[in-house]
Amino acid sequence: MQYTQLGRTGTFVSQLCLGTMTFGGTLEGTGGIGGLDRKAAGEILGTALDAGINCIDTADVYSGGQSEAFLGDLRGARRNAD
User: Considering its fold, how many domains does the chain have in total?
Assistant: First the structure.
């Protein structure tokens, strides 16, 4: 994975970013956004983290906030398993 430094902060982020707009459960009332369930989202997140991706795009509007909730739960579960 290639990384880029953010200005003079000393923080490096992966040049690839994982978009999480589709994380969040059902498609009902979302215009087709958010169709990935927790299991599928976990597999994608795990693959991204294993590849060295540390830039994750999320927003509270993705699946009505479920995207962020999934990420928090999945990251916590992964941290506990490590």
Answer: 1
Q: Is residue 79 part of a domain?
A: yes
Q: For the chain, first and last CA: distance in Å?
A: 21
Is 6 a member of any domain? no
Q: In the prediction, which pLDDT does 33 show?
A: 64
Across residues 35-62, what is the average pLDDT?
87
Residues annotated catalytic, as ranges:
62
Locate 54 and state its tokens. Answer: 């540390």
Parent domain of 80: 34-82
| DSSP SS3 for 57 | strand
Is residue 70 a contact partner of residue 23, using CB atoms and an 8 Å limit? Answer: yes
| Contact call for residues 55 and 14 (beta carbons, < 8 A) | yes
